[in-house]
């Protein structure tokens, strides 16, 4: 980012006296308050992105509830039923949530035909799905970053070898590869997650490689090379931190994709297998019951959508926060209405407000120059030498 | 029935036999239809090509008509204010600017970055960024542009008002032929269509001085040189005989000799068509060459305006005065006698030099450098010899593509030496083992051109400066910080900058940080690759001053790469002039700048504009004569 974007709260009086640009700049530097690092600015921008923050809260809530309710492993939770224990089927297994004046009731999500508590089952499935999602995200990101960075930095035969390897993984249909590896894991969730991670790194590897290739041309990398820094130092200290935006954003999107991939695999019966359950396999078991006992189908389905959506929104927020080229202001700033595709509504409100106010005041447009052709402005991409 | 089917065993053999018994008949029908389709397409392509070749282009003559004006002011800005809404609140870029441009007049808007000169001009075409809000009025020949509907504005753009951009490569669409782009301008505004438009475009290209226009018009932008591209952009701008042309830094991206040509072209077209030209530039030499009147802007306000002679010779406002003082001066006019004297001195010096075998900090012997692309190597530098003594500055001068930066890259170890020797303090760099090479890196510091890209945006300034020490494991963390503070003092920046990040600094400040980083290991050699070409004049003056001071203090040998002869005049001891990878002239500064022997050096010197309208006019005529004497076309 260039200095043009830094806040210029300069005092008019001071400016009158100073007529040397260099002096003005130095004075500005003195006058500036706290300095923000890039990561601090990213954090600030991310928290200004409402849908992302709401999604982050929702995802945290879902994670906390799913792990705390029935516990994980030997750690007990606050819910008194387990996902395997059967009991008497009450009222045809209908959900007791918000019935007869109670909030949760005995079986908030209902019961299966065998009388298992469905809330416990969905929570357990959610645990498994979240574990898979995050492990896949971490594994695929690690592999992708390492392969992409090596290929991009060293070029030559290293690049051709690694990128051809990537091509081979890409040309085999993802679902086939995942299904074969999924079968081999015997339904173990952790192994399955690692296996899925090993087939979904390709996209990130290509992106990281492209990013590293463009960073190689930067002068600060050339400066590091000429001062004698080792390749390891250049990659770890200069290149990866500067491509962290691409990496983090794609990691979040790969998490969302992993949830859907696991659900797909489980749904075709190649992923998580009984007695383990995941959200996908629950949908698979009970898709026949969508007419007779719809709650058995809807609850896990809704949670899949909720998790995937919130992870996607978080990824959106991160992308906006990391991409300083998208200087979004006014009604283009990401907000709730914008994310839901209702930018026009927001703009109409603003315009109405604007016509009420007195035109011609500084800081207020008397006409919309840009709204008519927001994308056709050639000056936006001009390079200043 | 159902059960019998279910119970019946499937006889696979029988099924197979059934299948084999079925004959698949080969049918011609689909192939025939496909064939007809292909034949039609080919026939169309051949026929269209044939027709196009046969058809004689009607020689429609393009003439620059004189622009007609309804009022006596072609363009008028009246109290224009622009502010931008940013993340950090609104920023006032232009604070009440008023001036006008008359028909056939060239008004130059001068200012440094952040002065609002480009923003002001973009309001005239309604091209301000989307987060801008504008107040005030801009009149184009009496019509108020700021209150115009988008449709009307569009019909105005390229017709009554047009623009010449800074970067010719990005101003032209690389995937469209030049012919398409030129006819587009004519067709959009209904001036000419079809072959008529093409014929007009060819005439247009001829008018801007592109040779062999009727064939070259069918080429793509990348097939033209930088100067020719800018000529095409100018052709686009004048195609519809506009009333006003806005030229936004039209020569900043070009070499000096090309710059002179482009300015000549603009002047000729303006004189022929009586168009008003709004010239935006930071180069006072260009102003002196082109402008009738000058508007000086600073921080969004007009500080001074008036006729060019008055502003450049007797500036009133202190800012204008400082701006003119900051321009590095090139003194190249010399009398015959002086030249003879200089030459004699140079000769005697050379004799004494060859007598004593001196110690060079950096020496190149028959250096040949090449870029490798897909196994093929492409020589860009050939047979270059030079030597820099400790405490000396060698200026590498040349136009783009001359190989001056390539030499700097080779010294930095960013490029393999293909042939010849590159001696750093007597040791040949290419043949050294890896460990010694790394040790030698301590002796070389570097300052790059682009202040935006030369510092890692994720490193605080302190880390940037101490990085070379960290790489070479010099000192403890505390000592390194102390050294960083010392260096910040040397480049006159406050010590608390240590915790700030590059994006908070301006271009000039970042370049000073680059210099501090380069000096952190007290190197004996410093490579400066166009360190000031991206900076504003006053900032450049500051950085150059500091550079000279530091050079005196640290006594490093320096390889200073630049395209600006005036900068070299201020700093260098020796100068090497390069053209297309070969040395044209090499010697002491006085000899090269004051008594040049080679034609190319003379041309280079003649093309550099000076910030004085009268002197510049003389130089322009002198350049014409020189080109004529060397048998070269003058446009």
Number of helices of chain A: 16
Shape of chain A: globular
Provide the CATH architecture of the domain at 52-70 and 116-322 in chain A. Orthogonal Bundle
Biggest interface: A-B, 71 and 89 residues
Distance between the termini of chain A: 15 Å
- Using the CA coordinates, give the radius of gyration of chain B: 31 Å
Biggest sheet features of chain B: 6 strands, mixed
Question: What is the residue-averaged pLDDT of chain A?
Answer: 75
The fraction of residues in strands of chain A falls at: under 5%
Q: What is the rounded Rg of chain A? A: 27 Å
How many helices of chain B does DSSP assign? 25
Q: Determine the structural class of chain B based on helices, strands and strand pairing.
A: alpha/beta
Membrane topology (chain B): Peripheral membrane protein
Protein name (chain B): Dipeptide ABC transporter ATP-binding protein
Subcellular location (chain B): Cell membrane
Pfam family, one (chain B): ABC_tran
Architecture overview:
Chain B: It is found in: Cell membrane. The complex is a heterodimer of chains A (about 375) and B (about 625). Chain A contains 16 helices and no strands. Chain A has about 375 residues and is an all-alpha fold. The longest helix of chain A has about 35 residues, at about 120-155. Chain A is globular and about 85 Å long. Mean pLDDT of chain A is about 75; it is low at about 1-15, about 325-330 and about 355-385. By secondary structure, chain B is of the alpha/beta class. In chain B, helix 10 (about 225-240) packs parallel to helix 11 (about 255-275). The chains are: A mainly alpha (about 375), B alpha/beta (about 625). At the A-B interface, helix 2, helix 10 and helix 11 of A face strand 1, strand 2, strand 4, helix 14 and helix 17 of B.
């Amino acid at each position: 980012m260039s200095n043009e974007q830094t806040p210029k709260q300069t005092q008019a009086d001071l400016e009158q006296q100073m007529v040397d640009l260099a002096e003005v700049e130095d004075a500005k530097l003195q006058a500036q308050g706290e300095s923000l690092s890039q990561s601090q600015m990213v954090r600030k921008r991310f928290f200004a992105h409402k849908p992302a923050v709401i999604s982050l809260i929702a995802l945290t809530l879902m994670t906390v509830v799913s792990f705390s309710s029935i516990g994980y492993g030997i750690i007990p939770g606050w819910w008194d039923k387990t996902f395997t224990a059967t009991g008497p089927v009450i009222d045809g297994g209908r959900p007791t949530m918000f019935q007869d004046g109670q909030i949760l009731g005995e079986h908030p999500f209902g019961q299966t035909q065998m009388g298992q508590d469905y809330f416990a089952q969905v929570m357990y499935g959610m645990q498994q799905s979240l574990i898979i999602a995050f492990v896949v995200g971490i594994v695929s990101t690690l592999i992708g970053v390492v392969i992409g960075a090596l290929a991009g930095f060293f070029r030559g035969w290293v690049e051709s070898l690694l990128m051809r390897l990537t091509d081979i993984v890409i040309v085999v249909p993802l679902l086939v590869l995942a299904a074969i590896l999924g079968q081999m894991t015997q339904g173990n969730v952790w192994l399955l997650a690692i296996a899925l991670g090993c087939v979904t790194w390709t996209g990130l590897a290509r992106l990281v490689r492209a990013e590293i290739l463009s960073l190689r041309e930067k002068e600060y990398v050339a400066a590091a090379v000429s001062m004698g820094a080792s390749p390891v130092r250049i990659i770890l200290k200069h290149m990866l931190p500067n491509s962290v935006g691409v990496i983090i954003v794609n990691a979040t999107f790969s998490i969302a994709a992993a949830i859907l991939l696991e659900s797909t695999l489980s749904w075709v019966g190649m992923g998580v297998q009984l007695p383990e359950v995941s959200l996908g396999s629950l949908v698979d078991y009970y898709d026949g019951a969508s007419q007779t006992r719809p709650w058995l189908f809807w609850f896990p389905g809704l949670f899949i959508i909720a998790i995937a959506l919130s992870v996607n929104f978080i990824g959106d927020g991160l992308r906006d926060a990391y991409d300083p080229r998208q200087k979004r202001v006014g009604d283009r700033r990401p907000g709730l209405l914008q994310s839901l595709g209702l930018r026009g509504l927001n703009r109409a409100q603003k315009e109405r407000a604007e016509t009420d106010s007195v035109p011609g005041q500084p800081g207020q447009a008397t006409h919309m120059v840009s709204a008519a052709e927001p994308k056709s402005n050639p000056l936006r991409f001009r390079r200043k030498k | 029935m159902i059960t019998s089917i279910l119970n019946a065993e499937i006889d696979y053999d029988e099924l197979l036999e059934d299948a084999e018994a079925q004959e698949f008949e080969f049918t011609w029908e689909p192939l025939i239809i496909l064939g007809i389709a292909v034949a039609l397409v080919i026939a169309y392509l051949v026929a269209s090509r044939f027709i196009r070749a046969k058809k004689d282009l009607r020689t429609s003559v393009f003439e620059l008509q004189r622009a007609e004006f309804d009022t006596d002011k072609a363009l008028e800005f009246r109290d224009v204010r622009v502010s931008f809404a940013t993340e950090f609140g609104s920023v006032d870029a232009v604070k009440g600017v008023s001036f006008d441009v008359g028909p056939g007049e060239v008004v130059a808007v001068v200012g440094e970055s952040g002065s609002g000169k480009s923003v002001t001009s973009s309001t005239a075409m309604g091209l301000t960024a989307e987060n801008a809000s504008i107040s005030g009025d801009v009149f184009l020949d009496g019509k108020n542009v700021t209150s115009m509907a988008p449709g009307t504005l569009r019909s105005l753009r390229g017709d009554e008002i047009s623009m010449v951009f800074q970067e010719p490569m990005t101003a032209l669409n690389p995937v469209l032929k030049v012919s398409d782009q030129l006819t587009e301008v004519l067709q959009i505004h209904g001036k000419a269509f079809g072959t008529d438009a093409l014929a007009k475009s060819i005439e247009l290209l001829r008018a801007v001085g592109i040779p062999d226009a009727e064939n070259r018009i069918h080429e793509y932008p990348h097939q033209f040189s930088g100067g020719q591209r800018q000529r095409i952009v100018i052709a686009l701008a004048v195609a519809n005989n506009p009333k006003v042309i806005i030229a936004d830094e039209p020569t900043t991206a070009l070499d000096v000799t090309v710059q002179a040509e482009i300015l000549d072209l603009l002047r000729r077209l303006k004189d022929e068509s009586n168009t008003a030209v709004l010239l935006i530039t930071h180069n006072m030499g260009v102003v002196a060459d082109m402008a009738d009147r000058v508007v000086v802007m600073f921080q969004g306000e007009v500080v001074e305006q008036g006729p060019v002679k008055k502003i450049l010779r007797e500036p009133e406002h202190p800012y204008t005065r400082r701006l003119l003082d900051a321009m590095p001066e090139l003194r190249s006019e010399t009398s015959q006698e002086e030249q003879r004297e200089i030459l004699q001195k140079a000769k005697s010096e050379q004799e004494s030099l060859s007598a004593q075998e001196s110690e060079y900090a950096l020496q190149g012997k028959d250096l040949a450098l090449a870029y490798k692309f897909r196994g093929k190597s492409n020589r860009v530098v050939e047979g270059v010899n030079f030597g820099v003594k400790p405490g000396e500055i060698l200026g590498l001068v040349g136009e783009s593509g001359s190989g001056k930066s390539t030499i700097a890259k080779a010294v930095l170890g960013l490029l393999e030496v293909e042939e010849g020797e590159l001696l750093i303090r007597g040791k040949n760099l290419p043949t050294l083992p890896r460990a010694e090479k790394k040790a030698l890196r301590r002796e070389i510091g570097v300052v790059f051109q682009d202040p935006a890209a030369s510092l890692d945006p994720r490193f605080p300034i302190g880390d940037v400066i101490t990085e070379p020490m960290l790489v070479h494991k010099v000192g403890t963390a505390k000592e390194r910080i102390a050294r960083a503070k010392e260096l910040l003092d040397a480049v006159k920046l406050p010590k608390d900058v240590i915790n700030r990040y590059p994006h908070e600094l301006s271009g000039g400040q970042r370049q000073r940080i680059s210099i501090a980083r380069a000096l952190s290991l007290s190197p004996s050699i410093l490579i400066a690759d166009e360190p000031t070409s991206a900076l504003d004049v006053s900032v450049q003056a500051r950085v150059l001053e500091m550079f000279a001071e530091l050079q005196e203090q640290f006594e490093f040998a320096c390889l200073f790469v630049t395209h600006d002869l005036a900068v070299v005049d201020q700093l260098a001891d020796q100068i090497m002039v390069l053209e297309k990878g070969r040395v044209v002239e090499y010697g002491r500064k006085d000899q090269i700048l004051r008594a040049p022997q080679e034609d190319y050096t003379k041309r280079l010197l003649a093309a550099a504009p000076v910030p004085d309208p009268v002197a510049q006019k003389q130089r322009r005529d002198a350049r014409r004569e020189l080109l004529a004497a060397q048998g070269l076309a003058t446009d």
